[in-house]
Amino acid sequence: MKYMMLNYRDEAAAANMTKEDQMQEMQDYNAFFEYARQRATIISGEAVRPTSAATTIRVRDGKTLTTDGPFVETREGLAGFYVIDCKDLDEAIEIASKIPVAREGSVEIRPVVTFE
Questions:
Q1: Strand partners, 38
Q2: What pLDDT digit, counting tens, does each position of 27-60 carry?
Q3: Residue 102 contacts by C-beta under 8 Å, 6 or more apart in sequence?
Q4: Which domain, by its residues, includes 39?
Q5: Residue 74: CB partners within 8 Å, gap ≥ 6?
């Protein structure tokens, strides 16, 4: 079953990381990626720009409305995602627990709907 793992983190804390912390984090993500690749099939994964670069759209009464930034006000913002094919939710939880952002932010796991 495919699971999307949405990675959330405190954007202000991430913006204030030292170069050394950034390098260590990249090493941690590389180690996670290798771990996940051995456990399951990684379908995709990407980092995303901070919420300040987001644009939210809504269509109301046939008109497209745009808003700079995310829909909700929150301290944590979406930092990236993975889509991983796991045998079940237990395996998805085990793999998500190894994503470095889980140590200081959160990882939301959602099953991906398969349309037939």
A1: none
A2: 999 999 999 999 988 999 999 998 888 888 889 9
A3: 96
A4: 2-111
A5: none
